[in-house]
Amino acid sequence: MTEPDAHSSAHSTGAQMRITVTRSLSRDQQARRERLIGAARDLAEEGGYPAVTMHDVADRAGVARATVYRYFATKDHLLTEVAGAWARSVIDGLDAGAGPSFGDALGDTPVERLSALLERIVFVAADNLTLASAIVQAATSDDPSVDEARTELFLYLRDRLSAAIGDPVPERDDVEVVLGHVLLAALVSLTSLRRPPDEVGALVRTSGRLVLRGAFAAAP
Questions:
Q1: Which is nearest to 74 in space by CA: 42, 40, 31, 26?
Q2: How many angstroms separate the CA atoms of 76 and 214, rounded?
Q3: d(Cα 54, Cα 198) in Å, to the nearest integer?
Q4: What is the pLDDT along the chain (220 residues), one digit of tens a residue?
Q5: Strands annotated E in 14-62
Q6: Calpha distance 42→48 (Å, rounded)
Q7: Can you name the CATH fold of 7-71?
Q8: Is 99 exposed, middle or buried (0-12, 13-18, 19+ CB in 10 A)?
Q9: Taking the mean position of all CA atoms in its chain, how far away is CA 183?
């Protein structure tokens, strides 16, 4: 017996049919989905990407293995959702200390605010390197089931980068896209290339400054 849902997509792998719920979850279903994300995050924190299996996630969350596939098509899909939840928790920590606006917690100028946010993400990732490595590996996978969750994550990060900048910026959409790729490159350098956090922090700080200054300089 499957759980009721308003929208679902079917994924067939060999003889196995996987039903993945994408939206319109009931309260209980949403709670179960969040529990699965939490279980996957715990496993990734403990043992990195190899430690996360759908079987172990199900065991950790206390559900049947088939239940995992009702919410997540693949391991990379699940870990990309973990990446989204992790990013929100990191940035929400800044929001909690903000005053009237998000930027108040970060600095006085667009460059200061942007640099503070980018550096915070880098240094929190460095402090949770095992988890960060797992979610970066999943989020950069060529698995098509990752596409929607990865797009949502990228759009969320663009929104928060834009909020951190605050002030009007010429060609803002292009600036946000470039900064999103800068952040991704920084996280790959940190997790896959194992570059020192201070070096990667300096990279995002310099990149943010140059991108903003370039955008303002190019304004008519």
A1: 40
A2: 36
A3: 35
A4: 344 343 344 444 333 434 444 457 888 899 999 999 999 999 999 999 999 999 999 999 999 999 999 999 999 999 999 999 999 998 887 654 444 444 555 688 999 999 999 999 999 999 999 999 999 999 999 999 999 999 999 999 999 999 999 888 999 999 999 999 999 999 999 999 999 999 999 999 999 999 999 998 887 6
A5: 16-23
A6: 9
A7: Arc Repressor Mutant, subunit A (1.10.10)
A8: exposed
A9: 11
Domain over 75-217 is classified CATH 1.10.357.10 = yes
Domain positions in the chain: 7-71, 75-217
Sign of CA dihedral 49, 52, 54, 55: positive
Q: Record the tokens describing residue 192, joined without a space.
A: 């896959």
**Topology match between the domains 7-71 and 75-217:** no
pTM of the model: 0.84
